[in-house]
Request: fold
Amino acid sequence: MTIFFIWLIAFCLIAYFVNQRWNNGVSQGLDKVLPGFLKSDGDNRYLWVITLAVLGATTLVQPVEMLLVAILLGLIGWGVSALVSWAGNKANF
Reply:
């Protein structure tokens, strides 16, 4: 129960500060990192604020699990890209 309250406090604080700094750099920072179809352009402000707050709070409360998930997603992405590359080389167009 204590971890939940710590997570909730971290979520609220991160969401508040991201929302306050949205026009001063957070939106531009996201647009530099994200691909074109995911760019915020200011339209999805609250969706990105909530997403960043959830990721930030979870990373603060459970950093090892977040690191393992990031490594697992990276390995899955690498495997899929290798499989697509291999299949592309085998295909006759």
The mean pLDDT is 86.
